[in-house]
Amino acid sequence: MIRSEETICAPATAVGGAISIIRVSGQQSFTICEKLFIPLDKTIKLIDQKGFTIIFGNIQSGDEIIDEVLLSVFRAPRSYTGENAVEISCHASPYIVRRIMELLIKNGATAANPGEFTQRAFLNGQIDLSQAEAVADIIASTTRSAHSIAMNQMRGGFSKEISRLRSELLNFASLIELELDFGEEDVEFADRSKLTSIILSVKDIADKLIGSFSLGNAIKNGIPVVIVGKPNSGKSTLLNALLMEDKAIVSEIPGTTRDVIEDTIVIDGIEYRFIDTAGLRETTDVIETMGIRKTHEKINQASIILLVDEISDSFEAINKRIGVIREMISGLDKHVLILINKTDQALPEKQEELRQMISVEEKETLLFISAKKNTGLDVLRLKLSEAVLKDKLKSDDVIITNIRHYEVMLHVSESLERVISGLDNNIPDDFIAIDIRQAIHYLGEITGEITSDEILGNIFKNFCIGK
Ligand SMILES: Nc1nc2c(ncn2[C@@H]2O[C@H](COP(=O)(O)OP(=O)(O)OP(=O)(O)O)[C@@H](O)[C@H]2O)c(=O)[nH]1
Ligand SMILES: [Mg+2]
């Protein structure tokens, strides 16, 4: 529900620091705060203050002093929400924060709903919808890559791209509709081959954005990397070495890991979710079989697969396992790295021998490591970053990280597909115009030019209070 007449308030900072900030926004911000705030300099009247002023004084309930605070004054439209707003910086005692909130509410403010400040910023035209969503991502980002994508989105990179697509389509639609207006006269303002090429290029960009979602989503939530291989090859030892802690149980008994073990590591600004699994082999042990079925599941969900083998294995055995993995993931966009482990137990010649025998296609994916002695792991970390960034993530690339945007872009692409096949098959212009309008409509849903209470409700309910 949208209630822009109310003046809202909420703590904007988490419990635990030295200072808390309470945000107040809405028409009555100044008059409400004036009732509980006594400036040190008695000549100061809050209501007369310019925007971007800070005033020192007390928050009082009658004669009782609650705290000494700083009040930051923002005047519409130059505030986050675009409304008159005040930020009260007080000492971070939960008691003080509660008392100030009570006073604000007693004097006419209302407690804000989750995300209501950002929602107002959107409704007042300060930011568009995808920028509002990026605010949540910025706050949630824990790595450099997630932060840089969210930052780009918040600063409007994504919105610009979408608006560009939209205005190309609007031009196109108006030309076609102009022709329709002339009805029977059979005029053609829009050169059909030129139109087809515009639509194709717009669809191409839409499809690229759709394609970026798996990477974008992975960066936001951690890139899933699954560690697989035969029992006892050192998968759990590798997980522990990468984590630099003893997370998984390691033993010389094959079949030690029976369930799936997961943990995250940040390497070079990117978060990875490492998943250690039960060894891949045929087994009669019921519990282990369940573990192995899970391994297959995890391979399906992973972006990167680390296949761990032992250097003492024969080339044939290693090659066979590579074949099994390749077959499992054929046609899917996944990276495989083949790790030959326990190199501390073999002569260097053995490495050279294997390197010679492996097929040309796998040469780049082959790495020699010793999980136990921590050798080769730096190269492995480097290869992981390469696998993720491979000609994909450049600093100003526009990337979809949000499932709502992804779904909307799928609709856009479908509508454009219909336009293209309509043009190819000489379908009447009115039908083509409908599909173009539909694509335009969907693009508008991303930036919020077209929106419904339901969409807004869904977005802002996931925000924290005070955001
Ligand atoms: N020499 C040597 N031993 C290793 C190395 N990596 C692992 N090991 C040993 O190999 C044995 C098996 O290691 P794990 O890490 O439990 O192997 P795993 O692949 O997780 O085994 P399962 O969970 O049973 O499938 C242990 O005794 C480890 O100490 C290595 O790089 N060099
Ligand atoms: Mg294990």
Keywords:
alpha/beta; 7-stranded mixed β-sheet; 6-stranded mixed β-sheet; binds guanosine-5'-triphosphate; binds magnesium ion
User: C-alpha Rg, in Å?
Assistant: 30 Å
Helix content: 40-55%
Largest sheet: 7 strands, mixed
> Please, how many helices?
16
Order of helices and strands: EEHEEEEHEHHHHHEHEEHEHEHHEHHHH
Per DSSP, what share of the residues sits in E-state strands of 2 or more residues? 15-25%
What does this structure look like?
It contains 16 helices and 13 strands. The protein has 467 residues and is an alpha/beta fold. The strands form two sheets. A seven-stranded mixed beta sheet has the order 3-4-5-6-2-1-7, with helices on one face. Strand 1 (8-11) and strand 2 form a beta hairpin. Helix 6 packs antiparallel against helix 7 (192-221) and helix 6 packs antiparallel against helix 15 (429-447). The longest helix is centred in the middle third of the chain and has 30 residues, at 192-221. The radius of gyration is 30 Å and the shape is flat. The structure holds guanosine-5'-triphosphate and magnesium ion (MG). The site of magnesium ion has 6 residues, from helix 8.
